[in-house]
From TrEMBL:
PANTHER family: BLL0334 PROTEIN (PTHR38588). Residues 153-163 have a biased composition (Low complexity). InterPro entries: CO_DH_gsu, START-like_dom_sf. Residues 148-186 are annotated as: Disordered. It holds the Pfam family COXG. This is Carbon monoxide dehydrogenase subunit G. Residues 164-176 have a biased composition (Acidic residues). It comes from Paraburkholderia gardini. SUPFAM superfamilies: Bet v1-like. CDD domains: CoxG (cd05018). Gene3D superfamilies: 3.30.530.20.
Amino acid sequence: MELTESYTLPVPQQRAWEALNDTAILRASIPGCDSIEPDGENAYALSMSASVGPVKARFKGRMLLTDIDAPNTYTIVFEGQGGAAGFGKGNAHVTLEADGETSTKLSYTATAQVGGKLAQIGSRLVDGAARKIAGEFFKRFSAQVTGEGDAGDAGASEAGPPDSGEEPESPDEAAGEDAGKGKKSWTAWISKF
């Protein structure tokens, strides 16, 4: 699986860099993140809950930051185990570029491998879930770095980290149907609880 995305953050480059290295901001921004703790130099232990289609699991893993060129770029190497659900590992190359004085363009290219039950459900669902998690991360991250803290919708601020990692995937959402239809499915799923 490979994902390449770009986002414009409404903060200067140095602030974006500091936030990307702040464990409290990352914990609040990563959907389903239970904990993120320093685990050696430029390394972090991570625990999170996630759902990909019918597979729901709690993952424990490690992130290592390499090729650090502050405040411009770094590479995140990650691996995680989800018990019977399987495993995930890969890397993400993150680049920050000033976009004027008050905003920053964040670009990343991530590659990942999954195994176990995650690999059995199909790349379309895995890719769709990864894109949703990344999109939710950047919505929350942007709210954190600007001090808004509400991430723009009730699901991000009220659901809490463990529940928000529950990423429902319908075939329509995984196929990349329009955002409006995806939101209706998401809302319907939440209302079941």
